[in-house]
Amino acid sequence: MAKAELARFIDRWTVEYVRIYPHPIERVWRAITDPKEISVWFWTASFDLRVGGAFRFGDGDMHGVFEIVDPPRLIRFKGPFPETNPEGYMQFTLTASPAGTRMTFVQHFTPGLVPHPELHADPADHPAAAVNPWRAGTLAGWHLAFDALGDLLDGIRQRQVALEESEWLPLYRLHMLQTQP
């Protein structure tokens, strides 16, 4: 797969990733909505895949409900952490393209929310610093996850890349300083 662009900040609270996967839209849909498949490229998952149905990732730390389920084009995870993040969501939009499927992923946090205030600001010299909802590790982690999604779709054995050792962490630190509102 070609090297993907870095995420784009829509505003301080919203980030967007765009990927093109050379696979049919139905295949990409299955990879992002089947708990067995998403558990390969992202995190262990359990889903009740219907509007109002619950989702959980990991040990339940990341959870919420499905707000929109429109196969095979749109899915919105309300949350994560809907108790403290009422306006937050993670959304996948899929569009068939001549090259395969264009996936747009958007994550939005409730304005003013810092999801992990116990974590130090990263980058520490960012103007928003401790009140920034994003950390370079979060952004690089999504980037690595979408690389792993591409590997799954391509039938490539999953690479184990430690976040701290990835090329993406320093790139996202710089990217945040240069582009984040």
Please tell me about this protein's structure.
With 181 residues, the protein is an alpha+beta fold. It has a single domain (8-179), classed as Alpha-D-Glucose-1,6-Bisphosphate, Chain A, domain 4 (2-Layer Sandwich). The protein has helices at residues 25-33, 35-41, 136-154, 168-179; strands spanning 8-11, 14-21, 45-47, 54-57, 62-70, 74-78, 89-97, 100-108. α1 (25-33) crosses α2 (35-41) and α2 (35-41) packs across α3 (136-154). The radius of gyration is 16 Å and the shape is globular.
Strand content: 25-35%
- What's the level 1 CATH class? Alpha Beta
Instruction: Give a count of the beta strands, DSSP E runs of length 2 or more.
Output: 8
Uncertain segments of ≥5 residues (pLDDT<50)? none
Provide the CATH superfamily.
Answer: START domain
